[in-house]
Design brief:
This protein is of the alpha/beta class. It folds into 3 domains: 31-138, Pantoate--beta-alanine Ligase, Chain: A,domain 2 (2-Layer Sandwich); 143-200 and 334-508, von Willebrand factor, type A domain (Rossmann fold, 3-Layer(aba) Sandwich); 276-330, no CATH class. 35% of the residues lie in helices and 15% in strands. The chain has 12 helices and 13 strands. The chain has helices spanning 2-5, 8-16, 18-65, 72-87, 161-177, 229-235, 309-314, 347-355, 365-376, 434-454, 469-478, 491-508, and strands at 97-102, 107-117, 128-138, 143-151, 186-193, 197-198, 244-245, 284-287, 293-296, 341-344, 393-401, 458-463, 485-486. A 6-stranded mixed beta sheet has the order 10-5-4-11-12-13, with helices on both faces. Helix 5 (161-177) packs antiparallel against helix 8 (347-355). It starts with a helix and ends with a helix. 42% of the residues are buried.
């Protein structure tokens, strides 16, 4: 009996030692949690490496795909150089391997592989994880040109919209460029719009800017036929043109008809906001017949006439050797918008332009789309795009707006603030009636989108917190297809949608 009882004594003693048992049980129970946490950290590291590896294989495949007449050995060398420079392995990381193959149909495939060191789950015997990526292109790879056409109106300053758009657009650009600072097969343009589009003050030497008053729109704000918007800028002593332009007439307001100095209406009038009646005050008021009082918000010079309000505003003599002393008013009023960045294959200027966007002004969406078309075109006014006949290049436009087309109405004889369509009272859209003019803007937007899609440009469109069903439908119809229209309900959804589009476009000029 003693022999049968002997083993029970240590077990009983162990069972009564509660502190030791609790520690061991806790250690054993915690091991799966520690391993799970470690696996999550190491998995995140592998995902980041895979993204870098994928960008490197994409760059390598595209670079080799452009060299259609090279031998396979030469293609392997070209691909490896791009692969290595774009992967940029960390000092303590494994060096990746790369292989290149070409099938019977001329499809070129680059595969990359790298071993990623595990830090936390290595204790369980998993020292390294193998990460793979591949890209396939036709042996003659295609390129991509993208125009980002973004609403920069005052309402974009609400609800953190513009800061969120900047984040979304930055992610978009970084996904397309990857780790490259300069791309051979990618160009991106940025077209901010509000009540104006700013083509850039550096375009003052271009012959498509109407500097001789050849376009009738350049003359409407002056009494004398010998004056025009450019002359107004030249006569004021301390101001120079800031880059905004008025719209052209009719169908040319939203198409890419080439500017021709022999045909004045094809040229773009430089915007010149007239000095409105008043005595250089922030809000000049004039009593007229009855109980009506007219208010003017852009009086920046002393008037040289005291008769009708129209004569006071359009009399050109007041501009001769004049000096504008205020910064809030002047011939550049409404032109506080970031200039267009033409198609560019360098990442940093694109990011800088996006970061410098500000929210101000009123909404003329058709102007943005029209200029988005012009930056993608190969012809003037912007000539950085390849011809539409080049089937190796995919062209795309991303349009975003948060509001309806509008005018800022004012209680004076102009009936609105000055915009790319002049004053509402001038009826450049066919009517001086507000609602009729808005309907005309909507029609112009539809025509602008049709013009873009007629060029086989892929259009993605965003109605970002747009309250109007009419405007949402216009923006939806602007997209190439329904699945390329987005109506993000939150700022987070906007960022995710831009990431989705960037990934789709990245793959669009890959054959797989």
């Amino acid at each position: 009996m003693n022999k049968s009882r002997t083993p029970l004594l240590p077990l009983k003693k162990f069972a009564t030692n509660q502190s030791g048992a609790a520690a061991l049980v806790l250690a054993v129970a915690s091991l799966p949690l520690v391993m799970a946490a470690g696996a999550a950290v190491d998995y995140g590291n592998s995902v980041a490496v895979q993204a870098r590896l994928q960008a490197a294989t994409d760059a390598a495949a595209l670079a080799a795909g452009r060299e259609a007449n090279r031998t396979q050995a030469e293609l392997e060398r070209i691909a490896y150089d791009y692969f290595k420079s774009n992967y940029n392995a960390p000092a303590d990381g494994e060096q990746p391997s790369m292989t290149l193959s070409i099938d019977a149909n001329g499809h070129l495939e680059v595969k990359g592989e790298v071993k990623v060191r595990n830090y936390l789950i290595a204790v369980a015997g998993y020292d390294k994880t193998t990460v793979n990526a591949s890209s396939q292109v036709a042996k003659d790879a295609t390129g991509l040109e993208v125009a980002l056409v973004f609403d920069n109106t005052g309402s974009m300053g609400n609800q953190n919209r513009l800061p969120t758009l900047k984040i979304a657009a930055r992610d978009f650009v970084n996904i397309l460029f990857g780790p490259r600072t300069t791309a051979d097969t990618l160009k991106i343009a940025v077209v901010p719009f509000s009540q104006f589009v700013n083509v850039g003050a550096d375009k003052s030497t271009e012959d498509w800017i109407d500097k001789a008053g050849l376009n009738p729109y350049s003359k409407v704000n002056f009494k004398s036929e010998n004056w025009d918007n450019w002359k107004g800028w030249n006569k004021i002593s301390n101001r120079t043109w800031t880059g905004c332009v008025e719209s052209r007439t009719g169908a040319m307001s939203v198409d890419d008809t080439p500017p021709d100095t022999g045909n004045g209406i094809t040229l773009f009038p430089p915007a010149f906001a007239p000095d409105e009646p008043g005595s250089n005050t922030s809000s000049s008021q004039f009593a007229v017949s009855g109980d009506t009082t007219y208010t003017y918000k852009n009086s920046y010079l002393e008037d040289s006439r005291t008769n009708t309000l129209d004569n006071r505003q359009r009399h050109q003599g007041k501009y001769v050797d004049a000096s504008v002393t205020t910064t809030s008013r002047g011939p550049d009023r409404g032109c506080n918008i970031q200039p267009i960045l033409a198609l560019n294959n360098v990442k940093q200027p694109v990011l800088d332009t996006l970061q410098n966007m500000t929210a101000s002004g009123y909404t003329h969406v058709a102007e943005g789309v029209g200029w988005g078309l012009r930056v993608l075109s190969a012809g003037a006014p912007f000539t950085e795009g390849v011809p539409y006949s080049n089937e190796k290049i995919t062209k795309a436009m991303v349009l975003l707006t948060d509001g309806e087309n509008t005018f800022d109405t004012e209680a004076n004889h102009n009936t609105s603030t000055y915009t790319a369509y002049g004053y509402l009272s001038q009826a450049r859209l066919g009517s001086s009636n507000y609602y009729t003019a808005i309907a005309a803007q909507n029609t112009m937007l539809q025509q602008a989108c049709d013009n873009v899609k007629a060029k086989e440009i892929v259009v993605y469109s965003f109605a970002y917190n747009v309250p109007s069903a009419t405007q949402r439908n216009l923006i939806k119809n602007c997209a190439t297809s329904p699945e390329k229209y987005f109506d993000p309900p939150t700022n987070e959804a906007l960022v995710a949608s831009f990431q989705q589009i960037a990934d789709e476009l990245r793959k669009l000029h890959l054959s797989r």
